[in-house]
Structure formats: C-alpha cells, structure tokens
Amino acid sequence: MLIKVYGSAVFGVEATTITIEVNVATGIGYHLVGLPDNAVRESSFRIAAALQNNGYKFPGKKIIVNMAPADLRKEGSAYDLSLSLGILAASGQIKAENISEYLIMGELSLDGSLQPIKGALPIAIKAKEEGFKGFILPKQNAKEAAIVSGLEVYGVENITEVINFFDKDEAIEPTIINTREEFYKNLDHPEHDFADVKGQESIKRCMEIAAAGGHNIILIGPPGAGKTMLAKRLPSILPPMTLHEALETTKIHSVVGRVKEQVGLMSQRPFRSPHHTISDVIVL
To answer: Are residues 16 and 144 in the same domain?
Structure first.
C-alpha cells in the first residue's frame, strides 16, 4: 500500500515541502531513499522503539520510503513523526484518509514523546502558501508556528495523540495566537532594560547619543567594569522593531532553534555576544 505524507526541509531561511512516499509490500527490508543524511537514516531505530512502546509495531515487510524531491539533501531528525505515520498508514495499522491535508514534523524519543524542531516558522509560512489545512508539530514549537494566521497549528506531546487524531478522530486543541497582540505585549518589557543601570552616567550618555544617531560604539575597560551589561541593554533604547522586522527576526532565530518556547514572536531587537577571538569572515 502506498501512502504520501508531507514534511518540510529548511534551506537558509526558506522552507521546501518534502513529499514522503511510503510503500509497504511483500518481502523483507527497509529502504530509505531521496538523499537522506545519517540523522534521517537512523530514524528507523527511533521509530521502531517508539511504535513498540506505544502499542504498535514496525512491520516486518519490505518498506520503501522515498523523500521527494530526491535531489535535495534531507537533514536532521525532524522527519521521524512523518515517517512513522507513513509507515503505520501504509501497513494498515491506522486509517489516515486525510493525512495529506496536513504537514507533519517532529523528532521522536524512544518512548514516543516529541522533541522540538528547528525552523517551525518558515515551515508554517510555506505550509500556508501551499494550501495545507494544518501543521502538526511538537508542542514546544506551537506558539512559534501559530504566528502564521490562516493555518491550523496543532502542538502535540506524544505520537499517540497524532495517531488518535487520524485513526480515531480525537480532537487536538489548536494553538491560536493573535500576532499583533503578542507583538505589542512584549514590546515595552525588554528582558534587559537600560533603565536598570545605576551610575555610569558618562557611558550611558555616550550610548544614548550612539543609539539616537545610529553610530558605532566601542567599549574598552577592565573585566567587570560593565561593558557587556551595558551593551546587552542598548537594544532597549533603540527604536522598536516593526511587525515586519519582528517576523523576519523570528524567522532567522527559528531556523537556528533559538526561539524561546514561551515567546511566539520576538519583539525585542536581538543582542549577540561573539567571542573576542572570532574571525572577520564570521562577523561579516
């Protein structure tokens, strides 16, 4: 039986939809094709353990999995959930008539629980563009993906929830976020506030001038003088980000997995603190 499940791959800050074709037939062997890396190849071991620990089985038949387009390299462990559901549906262990309406991503633990993925926001944007009804992903990434309006986002904690959603029509509570409300809620509450700095009047005046005029500033002093403390708080006196800038910033941080679970949309300008030995090439 042939089943198609949809996942996504992130290249740079843009996502590309991946069609996962699973065919289960008479015979023996597990064949995963479509240019997967080692993390994707190892998924069969995680999937087998997760299914066994949740009352299902990895079929002892000939399983061929094709990840199309086959000329794009597939990286990471975020395809575990989509691969496992494809195998269950193709082997007849669950019914999943509407599985093609959803984009599914998530890394499996051996007990069937889900680990967070990277790039949830660009994947959600692509899912909406391509007309998917919903996006199923780990609960830790749900707020991040729910920034995209017009797409049903389902955050799940365990593979059993997803199986019951398709096989037994058990509802999963969708994650809903008002993007503008989320943006303005955190706009005036920076994590590191310039107002918290006591004393240091001269350098504070210099930093205010630099922030107002868009100038560069260099801080030189002995360890413990407060250079990093002041630099961390400089974004709090810069002009606030626009909603468009916030979305672009969140998108970049999403790809590298730096969006905090409780913060769906980044509304504060980010602060980076590279090591002093960093090369010019990396800085630029």
So the answer is: yes
- Measure Cα distances from 270 to 11, 142, 273 in Å: 22, 21, 10
Q: pLDDT of 179-221, one tens digit each?
A: 787 777 777 778 889 999 998 899 999 999 999 999 999 999 9
Please give the Cα distance from 60 to 242 (Å, whole number): 54
The verdict on 214 and 124 lying in the same domain is no
Q: Which residues contact 175 (CB under 8 A, 6 or more apart)?
A: 142, 143, 145, 146, 153, 154, 155
What is the CA angle 131-176-16, rounded to 5?
A: 35
Specify the pTM: 0.85
How many distinct structural domains can be found in the chain?
2
220 Cβ partners below 8 Å, 6+ apart?
Answer: 227
Q: Give the tokens for residue 141.
A: 């990434």
